[in-house]
């Protein structure tokens, strides 16, 4: 598949399923009917995106035109992608649609529940167990809705202490129990966007076990407020990388154990040279793939650029143009202790010596105790003698 300027899209979704990334929808000056996949089981370079292993899927019947929507996976082996909401009118009567990776077919599931008819756009979803969670999605919409994928029933969950950023945020699943929300704001498509927080020194955390919200205080190099940015969780490093965003060109890292912010450690120059937003970001193997989006200027309202960040070495990331499908992330190993045969023998000798030394010390203590008893009597006798003295 050859991507051209006519099919460049912002607000596109991306989902990694097995060895393919599925891209759907978006905006390119008008609504976009793009639907295609990128094969990440083979090598490629980003020097010429027309030569990358694309497959056009837009011809499959049932495609719903969407922009600013959410997409989450579920089903056996994550073979289904559920598409939710969006800014286009075409989504009003098709709020939820499903694409089956195995059969390569679209369907509109019959849903029920107490989901309101509010248009929800510029949103993200998180899938966990049998639930898909979607927060906000419009001006003054501060509720969490959940889709039970076992029966396709929607429910609205409590919103006490929910973040005031109802769109343009990022949502990251942590430890299968909580969702961390970063950035975003209100009225983002107006001339004067409203940000929820002056600083990202506090983030909203949603607990899926008891459906409650809480605030997490952060420290370190606090990022500037941002909207329509990218966020990728690297579980091997317990780290979230956030990329770019409207009016911001920085890349920041959040330690999800200590909630400390820092500037991402990237060893070379690369990536987007100006503020990029409304793009997709996907962790695949040892790479973060950043695709499409738009720039914060009127000259380049949308772009078909593809960027690759090699994250195989923590705190030593680098921009590359070549993708290697065999390259995988490895967990950070603890500092190894000496375990040579010589050291092992020495350790055994020390243990044996310690045991005998301990026994010798115990024998000496017992001997001293016996001598004390013979000379002064048992401690209980001494106690009784002292009591008798006090009575006299």
TrEMBL record:
Pfam families: Beta-prop_ATRN-LZTR1 (PF24981). The chain crosses the membrane at residues 348-373. This is 2222_t:CDS:1. Keywords: Kelch repeat, Membrane, Repeat, Transmembrane, Transmembrane helix. Residues 84-357 form the Attractin/MKLN-like beta-propeller domain. InterPro entries: Beta-prop_ATRN-MKLN-like, Kelch-typ_b-propeller.
């Amino acid at each position: 598949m050859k991507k051209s300027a006519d099919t460049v899209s912002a607000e596109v979704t991306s989902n990694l399923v097995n060895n393919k990334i599925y891209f759907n929808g978006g905006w390119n000056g008008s609504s976009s009917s793009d639907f295609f996949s990128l094969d990440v089981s083979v090598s490629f370079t980003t020097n010429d995106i027309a030569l990358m292993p694309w497959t056009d899927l837009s011809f499959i019947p049932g495609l719903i035109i969407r922009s600013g929507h959410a997409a989450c996976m579920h089903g056996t082996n994550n073979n289904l992608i559920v598409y939710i909401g969006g800014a286009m009118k075409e989504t009003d009567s098709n709020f939820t649609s499903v694409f089956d990776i195995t059969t390569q077919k679209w369907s509109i599931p019959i849903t029920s529940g107490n989901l309101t008819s509010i248009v929800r756009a510029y949103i993200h979803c998180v899938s966990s167990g049998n639930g898909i969670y979607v927060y906000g999605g419009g001006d003054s919409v501060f509720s969490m809705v959940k889709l039970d994928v076992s029966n396709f029933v929607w429910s609205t969950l409590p919103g006490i202490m929910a973040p005031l950023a109802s769109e343009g945020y990022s949502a990251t699943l942590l430890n299968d129990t909580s969702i961390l929300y970063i950035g975003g704001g209100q009225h983002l498509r107006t001339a004067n966007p409203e940000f929820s927080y002056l600083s990202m020194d506090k983030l909203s955390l949603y607990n899926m076990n008891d459906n409650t919200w809480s605030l997490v205080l952060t420290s370190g190099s606090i990022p500037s407020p941002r909207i329509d940015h990218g966020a990728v969780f690297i579980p091997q490093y317990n780290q979230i990388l956030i990329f770019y965003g409207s009016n911001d060109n920085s890349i920041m890292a959040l330690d999800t154990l200590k909630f400390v912010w820092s500037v991402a450690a990237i060893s070379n120059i690369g990536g987007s040279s100006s503020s990029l937003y409304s793009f997709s970001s996907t962790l695949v193997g040892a790479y973060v793939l950043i695709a499409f989006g738009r720039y914060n200027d009127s000259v380049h309202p949308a772009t078909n650029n593809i960027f690759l960040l090699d994250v195989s070495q923590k705190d030593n990331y680098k921009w590359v143009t070549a993708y290697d499908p065999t390259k995988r992330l490895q967990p950070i190993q603890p500092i190894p202790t000496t375990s040579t045969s010589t050291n092992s023998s020495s350790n055994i000798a020390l243990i044996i010596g310690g045991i005998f030394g301990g026994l010798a010390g115990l024998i000496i203590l017992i001997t001293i105790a016996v001598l004390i008893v013979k000379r002064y009597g048992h401690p209980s006798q001494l106690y009784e003698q002292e009591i008798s003295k006090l009575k006299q």
